Amino acid sequence: MTTSTALDTPYDLAADQISAFDRDGFVHLSGVLDPEVVRHYEPEITEKVIELNTMHLPMEERSTYNKAFLQVGNLWQHSELVKELVFSQRLAKIAADLLGVEGVRLYHDQALYKEPAGGITPWHADQYYWPFSSDRSCTIWLPLQETPLEMGPLSFAAGSHRFEHGRDLPISDESEVALQAALAEQNLPVVNEPFALGDASYHLGWTFHHAGPNVGVDPRRVMTVIYIDADMVVAEPVNDHQVGDLAASLPGVRPGEVAASPMNPVLYRR
């Protein structure tokens, strides 16, 4: 099987995995991609992160947010090879099946590299940043190496996508303290698991998640793709971050319109 064929061959998603995603707001899937497929794309993603990264401060001079990871977005626009992975029908169909929608389009991609000695990723929900009219958005978190607990894999508060407290908090020291307490009060179990090479998780935009520091010796290299309902309508932004995201990720699209700029192609439709 060629790499491109592997990216378009459907993944055997079980009914109980779809149910778990609906119940918990996330699901950790084994063997989403063959390890050799991941190894094929990792060097190009890493090369583009090094080329496009703009954060060069020493770790001790960075904010908590910038200690959490190096963040580079829309790699698909800078590399035809990365575009193959981001546009994978296999990965997009999983998102559509989990969301229960007819199709999904790309919102954007992001490489998230947590360097050795990189700090925590504070508790937050992604959709705080996104001007969407529904909750039909999700992110694939695809590690590009085996990721033991010491490297800081994502952890999720199961069921937190139905917990509205804290949805007005950007990722910060404040969100870490406030949400850690609020989620504990709700007795929402925190799931923190290692990832084998080829594993991936999908989580909803309103699922609260966190990651520990990277105390290993190698960077924690992760590729993410944010998928939205192919018919997603843009909402009026409710904070400055959403204003910025509307302009940057949905150029020319206005509130009340479908999120269908040239940067947001449909990746899968039944």
From TrEMBL:
Pfam families hit by this protein: PhyH
Keyword Magnesium belongs to the record: no
Keywords: Dioxygenase, Oxidoreductase
SUPFAM superfamilies per UniProt: Clavaminate synthase-like
Any one GO MF annotation of this record: 2-oxoglutarate-dependent dioxygenase activity
Magnesium in keyword set: no
Entry-linked InterPro entries: Phytyl_CoA_dOase-like (IPR008775)
Protein name, entry field: Ectoine hydroxylase-related dioxygenase, phytanoyl-CoA dioxygenase (PhyH) family
Organism: Jiangella alba
